[in-house]
Amino acid sequence: MPFTPDMRRKVDQIRDYLYGGGYPDPLSNAEQLSFLFFFYMIEGIDAANLRQSRATGRDYTSLFAGDWALRNPLNAPAKGVETIPRDRIRWSSWANAMSGEQLVNFVRDEVFPFFAGIGDAYGMSFMAQARLAIDEPTVLTQVVTLVNELRLEEADPDTKGDLFEHVLRQIKQAGELGQFRTPRHIIRAIVDLVDPKIGETVYDPAAGTAGFLVAAYEHIRLANSSANGREVAELEGKTFERGYGDRLNQAQWRTLQTETFYGNDVDPKMVSLASMNLALRGLPDVRILKRNVLTTSFDRQAKAERGLPLEGYDVILANPPFSGRLDRDRIVDDVKIGTSTATELLFIKYMIDNLKPDGRCGVVVPEGVLFGSTGAHKELRRMLMQNNRVEAVLSLPGGVFQPYSGVKTSVLVFAKGGRTERVMFLHASNDGFKLDANHDQPIEVDDLPGLIAAFNSRDEMWADWQGRDASSPWTENWWFATAEAIEREDWNLSASRYRPESREAAVHRDPRELLEELQEDVEAILGDIQALGAEMRGEAV
Known about the structure:
The structure is a single chain. This protein is α/β, with parallel strands linked by helices. It is built from 19 helices and 15 strands. The strands form four sheets. It has a nine-stranded mixed beta sheet with strand order 7-6-3-8-9-11-10-12-15. β4 (230-235) and β5 (238-243) form a beta hairpin. It is elongated. It starts with a helix and ends in a 5-residue tail after the last helix.
Protein backbone atom coordinates (compact mmCIF):
# COMPACT_ATOMS: atom_id res chain seq x y z
CA MET A 1 0.00 0.00 0.00
CA PRO A 2 1.58 3.32 -1.04
CA PHE A 3 1.51 6.53 0.99
CA THR A 4 -1.91 7.70 -0.11
CA PRO A 5 -3.46 11.19 -0.13
CA ASP A 6 -5.83 9.96 2.59
CA MET A 7 -2.91 9.01 4.83
CA ARG A 8 -1.31 12.39 4.11
CA ARG A 9 -4.57 14.10 5.06
CA LYS A 10 -4.79 12.20 8.35
CA VAL A 11 -1.21 13.11 9.27
CA ASP A 12 -1.98 16.75 8.51
CA GLN A 13 -5.10 16.47 10.68
CA ILE A 14 -2.98 15.20 13.57
CA ARG A 15 -0.66 18.17 13.16
CA ASP A 16 -3.63 20.56 13.10
CA TYR A 17 -5.20 18.98 16.19
CA LEU A 18 -1.94 19.30 18.09
CA TYR A 19 -1.33 22.88 17.02
CA GLY A 20 -4.91 23.94 17.69
CA GLY A 21 -4.93 22.09 20.99
CA GLY A 22 -2.07 24.09 22.42
CA TYR A 23 0.96 22.11 21.24
CA PRO A 24 2.75 24.43 18.78
CA ASP A 25 6.25 22.92 18.87
CA PRO A 26 6.59 20.71 15.75
CA LEU A 27 9.73 18.99 17.04
CA SER A 28 8.04 17.82 20.25
CA ASN A 29 4.93 16.86 18.32
CA ALA A 30 6.95 14.71 15.92
CA GLU A 31 8.62 12.99 18.85
CA GLN A 32 5.29 12.32 20.57
CA LEU A 33 3.80 10.99 17.36
CA SER A 34 6.80 8.68 16.92
CA PHE A 35 6.09 7.19 20.36
CA LEU A 36 2.44 6.58 19.47
CA PHE A 37 3.47 4.95 16.18
CA PHE A 38 5.82 2.72 18.15
CA PHE A 39 3.12 1.67 20.65
CA TYR A 40 0.84 0.83 17.73
CA MET A 41 3.38 -1.20 15.79
CA ILE A 42 5.11 -3.07 18.61
CA GLU A 43 1.96 -5.11 19.19
CA GLY A 44 2.09 -6.47 15.63
CA ILE A 45 5.86 -7.06 15.85
CA ASP A 46 5.42 -8.98 19.09
CA ALA A 47 2.66 -11.12 17.57
CA ALA A 48 4.83 -11.87 14.52
CA ASN A 49 7.73 -12.89 16.77
CA LEU A 50 5.42 -15.26 18.64
CA ARG A 51 4.24 -16.87 15.40
CA GLN A 52 7.82 -17.25 14.22
CA SER A 53 8.89 -18.83 17.50
CA ARG A 54 6.11 -21.42 17.26
CA ALA A 55 7.02 -22.23 13.66
CA THR A 56 10.75 -22.53 14.31
CA GLY A 57 10.78 -23.87 17.85
CA ARG A 58 12.84 -20.94 19.09
CA ASP A 59 12.23 -19.52 22.55
CA TYR A 60 10.43 -16.19 22.66
CA THR A 61 8.51 -14.61 25.51
CA SER A 62 5.95 -11.99 24.61
CA LEU A 63 6.59 -8.45 25.80
CA PHE A 64 3.08 -8.56 27.18
CA ALA A 65 3.36 -11.79 29.17
CA GLY A 66 3.01 -11.59 32.95
CA ASP A 67 1.75 -8.84 35.22
CA TRP A 68 2.43 -5.12 35.49
CA ALA A 69 2.59 -3.27 38.83
CA LEU A 70 0.42 -0.19 38.41
CA ARG A 71 2.11 3.17 38.88
CA ASN A 72 -1.14 5.09 39.41
CA PRO A 73 -3.97 3.64 41.57
CA LEU A 74 -6.49 5.53 39.42
CA ASN A 75 -5.70 3.05 36.63
CA ALA A 76 -6.73 0.02 38.70
CA PRO A 77 -9.79 -1.87 37.40
CA ALA A 78 -11.08 -2.07 40.99
CA LYS A 79 -10.22 -0.59 44.35
CA GLY A 80 -7.24 -2.28 45.97
CA VAL A 81 -5.98 -3.93 42.78
CA GLU A 82 -2.25 -3.22 42.39
CA THR A 83 -1.37 -5.20 39.26
CA ILE A 84 -2.85 -5.80 35.84
CA PRO A 85 -1.94 -8.28 33.10
CA ARG A 86 0.73 -6.83 30.82
CA ASP A 87 -1.65 -7.68 28.02
CA ARG A 88 -3.52 -4.51 29.00
CA ILE A 89 -0.52 -2.46 27.80
CA ARG A 90 -1.18 -3.47 24.20
CA TRP A 91 -2.32 -0.62 21.97
CA SER A 92 -5.48 -2.48 20.95
CA SER A 93 -6.44 -2.85 24.62
CA TRP A 94 -6.38 0.79 25.67
CA ALA A 95 -6.56 2.79 22.42
CA ASN A 96 -9.95 1.32 21.52
CA ALA A 97 -11.42 1.33 25.00
CA MET A 98 -10.33 4.58 26.68
CA SER A 99 -10.75 8.28 26.09
CA GLY A 100 -10.43 11.59 27.90
CA GLU A 101 -8.80 11.79 31.31
CA GLN A 102 -8.74 8.00 31.70
CA LEU A 103 -6.70 7.70 28.48
CA VAL A 104 -4.22 10.38 29.58
CA ASN A 105 -3.71 8.75 33.00
CA PHE A 106 -3.16 5.28 31.56
CA VAL A 107 -0.83 6.28 28.73
CA ARG A 108 1.19 8.68 30.88
CA ASP A 109 1.51 6.54 34.02
CA GLU A 110 1.49 2.97 32.66
CA VAL A 111 2.24 2.73 28.92
CA PHE A 112 5.24 5.10 28.82
CA PRO A 113 6.84 3.68 32.03
CA PHE A 114 6.30 0.12 30.76
CA PHE A 115 8.28 0.65 27.55
CA ALA A 116 10.87 2.84 29.27
CA GLY A 117 11.41 0.04 31.77
CA ILE A 118 12.10 -2.73 29.25
CA GLY A 119 14.30 -0.34 27.23
CA ASP A 120 17.69 -1.70 26.24
CA ALA A 121 16.75 -5.34 26.79
CA TYR A 122 14.52 -5.22 23.73
CA GLY A 123 16.43 -2.71 21.61
CA MET A 124 14.23 0.20 22.68
CA SER A 125 16.85 2.47 24.22
CA PHE A 126 15.19 5.50 22.60
CA MET A 127 12.26 5.00 25.02
CA ALA A 128 14.41 5.36 28.13
CA GLN A 129 13.57 9.02 28.80
CA ALA A 130 10.24 9.08 26.97
CA ARG A 131 7.39 11.01 28.58
CA LEU A 132 3.86 11.86 27.50
CA ALA A 133 3.61 15.54 26.60
CA ILE A 134 0.12 15.50 25.01
CA ASP A 135 -1.79 15.59 28.29
CA GLU A 136 -4.91 17.45 27.16
CA PRO A 137 -7.59 14.71 27.20
CA THR A 138 -9.55 15.77 24.11
CA VAL A 139 -6.42 16.26 21.99
CA LEU A 140 -4.85 12.92 22.96
CA THR A 141 -8.14 11.12 22.25
CA GLN A 142 -8.36 12.69 18.80
CA VAL A 143 -4.74 11.93 17.97
CA VAL A 144 -5.00 8.28 19.08
CA THR A 145 -8.14 7.88 16.97
CA LEU A 146 -6.37 9.25 13.88
CA VAL A 147 -3.31 7.05 14.42
CA ASN A 148 -5.70 4.09 14.57
CA GLU A 149 -7.21 5.17 11.25
CA LEU A 150 -3.80 5.14 9.55
CA ARG A 151 -3.90 1.31 9.68
CA LEU A 152 -0.14 1.10 9.90
CA GLU A 153 -0.20 -2.69 10.10
CA GLU A 154 -1.39 -2.76 6.48
CA ALA A 155 1.44 -0.53 5.22
CA ASP A 156 4.77 -1.80 3.97
CA PRO A 157 8.00 -0.40 5.47
CA ASP A 158 8.52 2.07 2.61
CA THR A 159 5.02 3.48 3.05
CA LYS A 160 5.51 3.83 6.79
CA GLY A 161 8.81 5.56 6.14
CA ASP A 162 7.24 7.96 3.63
CA LEU A 163 4.51 8.73 6.14
CA PHE A 164 7.05 9.54 8.81
CA GLU A 165 9.07 11.67 6.39
CA HIS A 166 5.89 13.69 5.85
CA VAL A 167 5.74 14.22 9.61
CA LEU A 168 9.36 15.34 9.65
CA ARG A 169 8.79 17.65 6.71
CA GLN A 170 6.30 19.62 8.79
CA ILE A 171 9.14 20.35 11.18
CA LYS A 172 11.25 21.73 8.35
CA GLN A 173 8.42 23.91 7.12
CA ALA A 174 7.94 25.27 10.61
CA GLY A 175 11.62 26.20 10.71
CA GLU A 176 12.34 24.42 13.98
CA LEU A 177 14.80 21.79 12.87
CA GLY A 178 17.19 23.44 10.48
CA GLN A 179 20.45 22.08 11.82
CA PHE A 180 19.12 18.54 11.96
CA ARG A 181 17.13 17.94 8.80
CA THR A 182 18.81 18.13 5.42
CA PRO A 183 16.52 18.22 2.34
CA ARG A 184 16.10 14.63 1.21
CA HIS A 185 16.99 15.28 -2.43
CA ILE A 186 20.33 16.76 -1.29
CA ILE A 187 20.91 13.71 0.90
CA ARG A 188 20.21 11.36 -2.01
CA ALA A 189 22.67 13.29 -4.19
CA ILE A 190 25.42 12.98 -1.58
CA VAL A 191 24.74 9.27 -1.10
CA ASP A 192 24.91 8.75 -4.87
CA LEU A 193 28.31 10.47 -4.94
CA VAL A 194 29.74 8.29 -2.15
CA ASP A 195 27.99 5.09 -3.33
CA PRO A 196 27.78 2.84 -0.22
CA LYS A 197 27.68 -0.87 -1.05
CA ILE A 198 26.33 -4.02 0.53
CA GLY A 199 28.75 -5.33 3.15
CA GLU A 200 30.08 -1.86 4.02
CA THR A 201 29.41 -0.09 7.31
CA VAL A 202 27.67 3.30 7.09
CA TYR A 203 27.89 5.90 9.87
CA ASP A 204 26.45 9.32 10.62
CA PRO A 205 28.05 10.92 13.70
CA ALA A 206 25.36 13.63 13.85
CA ALA A 207 22.40 11.60 12.66
CA GLY A 208 19.52 13.99 13.33
CA THR A 209 16.44 12.15 12.05
CA ALA A 210 18.61 9.50 10.29
CA GLY A 211 18.02 10.89 6.80
CA PHE A 212 21.47 9.84 5.55
CA LEU A 213 21.17 6.32 6.94
CA VAL A 214 17.73 5.89 5.37
CA ALA A 215 19.02 7.17 2.01
CA ALA A 216 22.02 4.82 2.17
CA TYR A 217 19.67 1.91 2.91
CA GLU A 218 17.53 2.79 -0.13
CA HIS A 219 20.64 3.29 -2.30
CA ILE A 220 21.98 -0.17 -1.44
CA ARG A 221 18.60 -1.78 -2.02
CA LEU A 222 18.25 -0.09 -5.41
CA ALA A 223 21.73 -1.20 -6.48
CA ASN A 224 20.72 -4.78 -5.68
CA SER A 225 17.33 -4.80 -7.41
CA SER A 226 16.34 -6.40 -10.68
CA ALA A 227 14.45 -4.53 -13.39
CA ASN A 228 11.22 -5.97 -12.00
CA GLY A 229 12.19 -5.08 -8.45
CA ARG A 230 12.05 -1.32 -8.94
CA GLU A 231 9.37 1.33 -8.74
CA VAL A 232 9.05 5.08 -9.04
CA ALA A 233 8.32 6.81 -5.71
CA GLU A 234 7.53 10.43 -4.88
CA LEU A 235 8.70 12.52 -1.95
CA GLU A 236 8.51 16.26 -1.41
CA GLY A 237 7.21 16.79 -4.94
CA LYS A 238 10.05 14.92 -6.66
CA THR A 239 10.07 11.41 -8.10
CA PHE A 240 12.93 8.96 -7.60
CA GLU A 241 13.56 5.28 -8.18
CA ARG A 242 13.21 2.85 -5.30
CA GLY A 243 14.30 -0.79 -5.27
CA TYR A 244 13.08 -3.83 -3.35
CA GLY A 245 16.54 -5.36 -3.03
CA ASP A 246 15.30 -8.61 -4.57
CA ARG A 247 18.85 -9.65 -5.55
CA LEU A 248 20.03 -9.69 -1.93
CA ASN A 249 20.26 -13.11 -0.31
CA GLN A 250 19.15 -13.83 3.24
CA ALA A 251 22.61 -13.37 4.73
CA GLN A 252 23.02 -10.02 2.96
CA TRP A 253 19.63 -8.85 4.23
CA ARG A 254 20.63 -9.81 7.75
CA THR A 255 23.89 -7.86 7.38
CA LEU A 256 22.03 -4.87 5.98
CA GLN A 257 19.54 -4.84 8.84
CA THR A 258 21.85 -5.52 11.78
CA GLU A 259 25.51 -4.81 10.90
CA THR A 260 25.50 -1.91 8.45
CA PHE A 261 24.11 1.32 9.92
CA TYR A 262 25.38 3.28 12.91
CA GLY A 263 24.76 6.76 14.26
CA ASN A 264 24.47 9.08 17.21
CA ASP A 265 23.14 12.49 18.14
CA VAL A 266 23.41 14.81 21.12
CA ASP A 267 19.67 15.51 21.32
CA PRO A 268 17.47 12.79 22.89
CA LYS A 269 14.55 13.92 20.73
CA MET A 270 16.64 13.34 17.64
CA VAL A 271 17.59 9.89 18.92
CA SER A 272 13.90 9.03 19.26
CA LEU A 273 13.00 10.38 15.83
CA ALA A 274 15.95 8.67 14.15
CA SER A 275 15.19 5.34 15.82
CA MET A 276 11.56 5.52 14.73
CA ASN A 277 12.47 6.58 11.18
CA LEU A 278 14.67 3.50 10.88
CA ALA A 279 12.26 1.12 12.63
CA LEU A 280 9.40 2.12 10.36
CA ARG A 281 11.54 1.16 7.35
CA GLY A 282 12.32 -2.30 8.66
CA LEU A 283 15.52 -1.44 10.54
CA PRO A 284 14.46 -1.79 14.19
CA ASP A 285 17.85 -3.18 15.28
CA VAL A 286 19.85 -0.06 14.34
CA ARG A 287 20.73 1.76 17.53
CA ILE A 288 21.27 5.49 17.50
CA LEU A 289 23.36 6.45 20.51
CA LYS A 290 22.88 9.63 22.49
CA ARG A 291 26.41 10.99 22.27
CA ASN A 292 28.49 14.05 21.43
CA VAL A 293 31.49 12.70 19.51
CA LEU A 294 33.42 15.93 20.05
CA THR A 295 33.37 15.62 23.84
CA THR A 296 33.43 11.84 24.34
CA SER A 297 35.69 9.13 22.95
CA PHE A 298 35.38 5.33 22.89
CA ASP A 299 38.32 2.95 23.24
CA ARG A 300 38.22 -0.52 21.70
CA GLN A 301 36.55 -2.04 24.75
CA ALA A 302 33.82 0.61 24.79
CA LYS A 303 33.20 0.04 21.07
CA ALA A 304 33.04 -3.73 21.57
CA GLU A 305 30.55 -3.36 24.43
CA ARG A 306 28.29 -1.26 22.20
CA GLY A 307 28.65 -3.48 19.16
CA LEU A 308 30.47 -0.81 17.12
CA PRO A 309 33.06 -1.57 14.41
CA LEU A 310 36.49 -1.65 16.00
CA GLU A 311 38.53 -0.50 13.00
CA GLY A 312 36.35 2.35 11.81
CA TYR A 313 33.69 2.71 9.13
CA ASP A 314 33.65 2.16 5.38
CA VAL A 315 31.38 5.13 4.72
CA ILE A 316 30.58 8.29 6.69
CA LEU A 317 27.73 10.55 5.59
CA ALA A 318 26.77 13.65 7.52
CA ASN A 319 25.56 17.21 7.73
CA PRO A 320 26.99 18.02 11.17
CA PRO A 321 26.11 21.14 13.16
CA PHE A 322 28.36 24.04 12.19
CA SER A 323 28.97 27.68 13.04
CA GLY A 324 29.13 26.63 16.67
CA ARG A 325 31.82 26.72 19.33
CA LEU A 326 32.68 24.32 22.14
CA ASP A 327 34.35 24.93 25.47
CA ARG A 328 37.99 24.09 24.70
CA ASP A 329 38.31 22.06 27.90
CA ARG A 330 35.50 19.72 26.83
CA ILE A 331 36.98 18.80 23.44
CA VAL A 332 38.56 15.35 23.43
CA ASP A 333 42.13 15.14 22.18
CA ASP A 334 41.18 12.84 19.30
CA VAL A 335 39.33 15.53 17.36
CA LYS A 336 41.49 18.56 18.04
CA ILE A 337 42.80 20.51 15.10
CA GLY A 338 45.19 23.14 16.36
CA THR A 339 43.45 25.15 19.05
CA SER A 340 40.21 25.60 17.13
CA THR A 341 36.85 25.23 18.85
CA ALA A 342 34.85 25.48 15.59
CA THR A 343 32.57 22.45 15.38
CA GLU A 344 32.70 22.29 11.59
CA LEU A 345 36.47 21.70 11.71
CA LEU A 346 36.37 19.30 14.63
CA PHE A 347 33.73 17.13 12.99
CA ILE A 348 35.77 16.73 9.81
CA LYS A 349 38.84 15.77 11.85
CA TYR A 350 36.69 13.21 13.68
CA MET A 351 35.42 11.78 10.40
CA ILE A 352 38.91 11.40 8.98
CA ASP A 353 40.02 9.54 12.08
CA ASN A 354 36.99 7.22 12.11
CA LEU A 355 37.17 6.05 8.51
CA LYS A 356 38.80 2.76 7.61
CA PRO A 357 41.73 3.00 5.21
CA ASP A 358 40.20 3.81 1.80
CA GLY A 359 36.90 4.56 3.52
CA ARG A 360 34.77 7.27 1.88
CA CYS A 361 33.09 10.35 3.29
CA GLY A 362 30.48 12.79 2.01
CA VAL A 363 29.91 15.75 4.32
CA VAL A 364 28.12 19.09 4.06
CA VAL A 365 30.40 21.95 5.08
CA PRO A 366 29.91 25.72 5.37
CA GLU A 367 31.81 27.53 2.67
CA GLY A 368 34.25 28.97 5.19
CA VAL A 369 35.79 25.52 5.72
CA LEU A 370 36.97 25.60 2.12
CA PHE A 371 38.75 28.96 2.22
CA GLY A 372 39.05 30.05 5.87
CA SER A 373 42.41 31.66 6.63
CA THR A 374 43.00 30.61 10.23
CA GLY A 375 45.79 28.20 11.00
CA ALA A 376 43.30 25.46 11.85
CA HIS A 377 41.43 25.89 8.56
CA LYS A 378 44.62 25.67 6.52
CA GLU A 379 45.96 22.73 8.51
CA LEU A 380 42.75 20.76 8.05
CA ARG A 381 42.75 21.35 4.30
CA ARG A 382 46.43 20.44 4.07
CA MET A 383 45.69 17.23 5.96
CA LEU A 384 42.83 16.44 3.60
CA MET A 385 44.97 17.06 0.52
CA GLN A 386 48.28 15.53 1.57
CA ASN A 387 47.14 12.62 3.77
CA ASN A 388 43.84 11.76 2.09
CA ARG A 389 42.22 11.85 -1.33
CA VAL A 390 39.81 14.71 -1.92
CA GLU A 391 37.67 13.43 -4.79
CA ALA A 392 35.24 16.30 -5.30
CA VAL A 393 33.75 19.51 -3.98
CA LEU A 394 30.09 20.03 -4.89
CA SER A 395 29.06 23.68 -4.55
CA LEU A 396 25.37 23.87 -3.58
CA PRO A 397 23.06 26.79 -4.36
CA GLY A 398 22.84 29.39 -1.63
CA GLY A 399 19.20 28.71 -0.76
CA VAL A 400 19.10 24.94 -0.30
CA PHE A 401 18.71 25.17 3.47
CA GLN A 402 15.91 27.70 3.46
CA PRO A 403 13.67 28.49 5.27
CA TYR A 404 15.85 27.98 8.31
CA SER A 405 19.30 28.98 7.08
CA GLY A 406 20.71 30.99 4.20
CA VAL A 407 24.29 29.86 4.74
CA LYS A 408 26.26 28.94 1.60
CA THR A 409 27.40 25.32 1.72
CA SER A 410 29.30 22.72 -0.27
CA VAL A 411 29.68 18.97 -0.13
CA LEU A 412 33.16 17.59 0.47
CA VAL A 413 33.78 14.07 -0.87
CA PHE A 414 37.03 12.37 0.15
CA ALA A 415 38.62 8.99 0.83
CA LYS A 416 41.00 8.16 3.66
CA GLY A 417 44.68 7.68 2.99
CA GLY A 418 46.97 8.34 0.08
CA ARG A 419 47.51 11.78 -1.41
CA THR A 420 45.27 13.98 -3.54
CA GLU A 421 46.41 14.43 -7.13
CA ARG A 422 43.47 16.44 -8.44
CA VAL A 423 40.06 17.64 -7.27
CA MET A 424 36.88 17.70 -9.33
CA PHE A 425 34.73 20.77 -8.71
CA LEU A 426 30.98 20.52 -9.34
CA HIS A 427 28.81 23.63 -9.38
CA ALA A 428 25.02 23.39 -8.94
CA SER A 429 23.07 26.54 -9.80
CA ASN A 430 19.73 24.74 -9.36
CA ASP A 431 18.77 21.75 -7.23
CA GLY A 432 15.28 21.11 -8.61
CA PHE A 433 13.46 23.42 -6.20
CA LYS A 434 12.68 27.12 -6.38
CA LEU A 435 15.41 29.01 -4.52
CA ASP A 436 13.10 31.25 -2.53
CA ALA A 437 12.48 31.76 1.18
CA ASN A 438 10.70 28.41 1.54
CA HIS A 439 12.60 26.23 -0.96
CA ASP A 440 9.74 23.77 -1.27
CA GLN A 441 8.36 24.31 -4.79
CA PRO A 442 9.66 21.77 -7.35
CA ILE A 443 10.98 23.10 -10.67
CA GLU A 444 12.22 21.31 -13.78
CA VAL A 445 15.75 22.70 -13.77
CA ASP A 446 18.00 20.43 -11.70
CA ASP A 447 21.80 20.30 -12.06
CA LEU A 448 22.35 17.49 -9.55
CA PRO A 449 21.71 14.42 -11.78
CA GLY A 450 24.11 15.69 -14.45
CA LEU A 451 26.78 16.51 -11.88
CA ILE A 452 26.48 13.07 -10.29
CA ALA A 453 26.85 11.48 -13.73
CA ALA A 454 29.93 13.63 -14.42
CA PHE A 455 31.48 12.59 -11.10
CA ASN A 456 30.83 8.92 -11.80
CA SER A 457 32.69 9.38 -15.12
CA ARG A 458 35.41 11.58 -13.66
CA ASP A 459 38.29 9.74 -15.32
CA GLU A 460 36.77 10.43 -18.74
CA MET A 461 35.93 13.98 -17.68
CA TRP A 462 39.57 14.49 -16.62
CA ALA A 463 40.69 13.47 -20.10
CA ASP A 464 38.21 15.95 -21.61
CA TRP A 465 39.46 18.65 -19.27
CA GLN A 466 43.07 18.06 -20.21
CA GLY A 467 42.24 18.11 -23.90
CA ARG A 468 40.17 21.31 -23.80
CA ASP A 469 41.02 24.41 -25.82
CA ALA A 470 42.06 26.86 -23.12
CA SER A 471 41.27 29.81 -25.40
CA SER A 472 37.61 28.79 -25.74
CA PRO A 473 34.90 29.45 -23.11
CA TRP A 474 34.38 26.61 -20.66
CA THR A 475 30.61 26.05 -20.49
CA GLU A 476 30.42 22.92 -18.32
CA ASN A 477 29.40 23.20 -14.65
CA TRP A 478 32.33 21.02 -13.58
CA TRP A 479 36.10 21.52 -13.76
CA PHE A 480 39.33 20.32 -12.18
CA ALA A 481 42.31 21.69 -10.26
CA THR A 482 45.57 19.88 -9.59
CA ALA A 483 47.01 19.44 -6.12
CA GLU A 484 49.89 21.74 -7.06
CA ALA A 485 47.51 24.55 -8.01
CA ILE A 486 45.53 24.11 -4.80
CA GLU A 487 48.68 24.13 -2.66
CA ARG A 488 49.71 27.45 -4.23
CA GLU A 489 46.38 28.87 -3.04
CA ASP A 490 46.93 27.93 0.62
CA TRP A 491 44.94 24.74 0.07
CA ASN A 492 41.83 26.76 -0.85
CA LEU A 493 39.09 24.34 -1.92
CA SER A 494 36.45 26.86 -2.96
CA ALA A 495 35.03 25.87 -6.36
CA SER A 496 34.96 29.44 -7.69
CA ARG A 497 38.71 29.90 -7.14
CA TYR A 498 39.54 27.46 -9.94
CA ARG A 499 36.67 28.07 -12.34
CA PRO A 500 38.06 28.69 -15.84
CA GLU A 501 37.26 32.21 -16.95
CA SER A 502 37.04 33.95 -20.30
CA ARG A 503 35.40 37.17 -21.42
CA GLU A 504 32.72 35.36 -23.40
CA ALA A 505 31.93 32.98 -20.54
CA ALA A 506 31.74 35.77 -18.00
CA VAL A 507 29.22 37.75 -20.02
CA HIS A 508 26.78 34.85 -20.14
CA ARG A 509 27.13 33.51 -16.63
CA ASP A 510 24.12 33.31 -14.35
CA PRO A 511 24.01 36.38 -12.06
CA ARG A 512 23.25 34.08 -9.12
CA GLU A 513 26.58 32.35 -9.62
CA LEU A 514 28.36 35.70 -9.55
CA LEU A 515 26.49 36.65 -6.36
CA GLU A 516 27.51 33.36 -4.75
CA GLU A 517 31.14 33.98 -5.63
CA LEU A 518 30.87 37.50 -4.25
CA GLN A 519 29.43 36.05 -1.04
CA GLU A 520 32.36 33.65 -0.82
CA ASP A 521 34.83 36.51 -1.25
CA VAL A 522 33.07 38.56 1.43
CA GLU A 523 33.06 35.64 3.84
CA ALA A 524 36.76 35.08 3.20
CA ILE A 525 37.51 38.73 3.94
CA LEU A 526 35.43 38.61 7.12
CA GLY A 527 37.28 35.47 8.16
CA ASP A 528 40.60 37.25 7.68
CA ILE A 529 39.36 40.21 9.73
CA GLN A 530 38.18 37.93 12.55
CA ALA A 531 41.48 36.04 12.55
CA LEU A 532 43.44 39.28 12.63
CA GLY A 533 41.30 40.58 15.48
CA ALA A 534 41.84 37.39 17.44
CA GLU A 535 45.59 37.61 16.95
CA MET A 536 45.62 41.25 18.13
CA ARG A 537 43.72 40.20 21.25
CA GLY A 538 46.15 37.36 21.81
CA GLU A 539 43.54 34.63 21.27
CA ALA A 540 44.33 31.28 19.68
CA VAL A 541 42.66 30.50 16.39
